[in-house]
Write a structure and sequence with these properties.
Arc Repressor Mutant, subunit A; three-stranded antiparallel β-sheet; seven-stranded mixed β-sheet; about 210 residues; homodimer; globular; 10 strands; alpha/beta; Rossmann fold
Chain lengths: ~210, ~210
């Protein structure tokens, strides 16, 4: 059902949110839900929900609503959670530690299998059951383990060098936490995370609120 | 110029990105830029750029392009970077540490002025020149310091209690890193950050790429 027609990136960016809310509904043992109820929970209009979910076939039935588990599974399949992604973290600082310890990645299909750094004090330490290796060992590691995604939390001055190395090693996905927007051509898919963008939006909303 | 007409949230969410790129241009000593050049750097269409920047008056001149510094200042003003926001971090774990040490918040108008936790091992330690205080001291702290934004990096089970406390203390903005989408009514502006959403989008793009 999925993957047959091109879904816009705007819709794709909303899917993880559906996935989270559907996962919560399953935990609450809710079997089906109308677009109206889902709309109230998610703070998205019901018509937006119907439009989004129609993009990939539409799982709702008039008068019945959505089958929660079916929709959850289908959204997960579209996102690839059933496929599973093997990830490594490059940079064992605070952000690298936070990511390695984040509890919700694994049940979304992302498994952390390696952590790398260059700081002798960090090499050999264990973070959430993963031993920190030296970055020089990355080549060997990639020869012996399939790696889908490299998560970059290195200092900004090192990011271009590390990103090029990762590209050379044939890793196809980069989740980039450094301030530099990486552009590595068509071979590598990059998702740049800029935490400050979200904080600036909050600042804007706050300023608007105060001027009301 | 700003604040006079309502700008859509979709445009607002793109502004921090303009702000970042304009800041880079200033560092490169570039005085003016066409929408076409900016488009190539930012990977946004030139027509999108013109449309976005027209929302708040339009700073471009036909045949001249945009005055980089003027545009940077104006985007900053719209976002409130000139106003400045005082922030506290609640939760001195890895994510709290990462945020406290993040170098780019201050020059975007966000100053960290306090860090709170409940773990006796953390109380009294110093993170980026800020002493970690006990959460019980938050009331006193807020009496003596103006706080615009509380950044929540507490364990998920504590988030609702902490958020309600923050609301009671009259803090109007919450930047929430916990998995729980907070809804605190109209009094408090909340920006929920879900890191896994971005990772899931990366996973989707990777899966699509592999099936090409």
């Amino acid at each position: 059902m999925s993957g047959e027609k091109k879904i816009s990136i705007a819709v794709i960016r909303r899917l993880p949110r559906y996935f989270r809310y559907l996962s919560d509904l399953i935990k609450l043992d809710i079997k089906r839900i109308s677009s109206k109820e889902l709309s109230q929970r998610m703070d998205i209009t019901a018509s937006q929900i119907r439009q989004d979910l129609n993009c990939f076939g539409g799982f709702g039935q008039q008068g019945y609503g959505y089958n929660v588990e079916l929709l959850y599974e289908e959204v997960g399949k579209i996102l690839g959670t059933d496929k599973g992604f093997k990830c490594i973290i490059v940079g064992a600082g605070n952000m690298g530690n936070a990511i390695a310890n984040y509890e919700n990645f694994k049940n979304r299909g992302f498994e952390m299998i390696g952590i790398f750094d260059v700081d002798p004090k960090k090499i050999g330490t264990v973070i959430n059951n993963i031993k920190v290796l030296h970055l020089d060992d990355l080549d060997d590691f990639v020869k012996n383990h399939h790696v889908d995604i490299a998560i970059l939390t290195v200092p900004n001055k090192h990011v271009v060098g590390v990103a090029n190395k990762i590209k050379e090693l044939g890793i196809k996905g980069i989740w980039n936490f450094t301030p530099t927007d990486l552009k590595l051509g068509d071979e590598v898919v990059v998702e740049n995370v800029h935490l400050s963008d979200s904080l600036m939006v909050l600042g804007y909303k706050l300023k608007e609120k105060e001027s009301e």
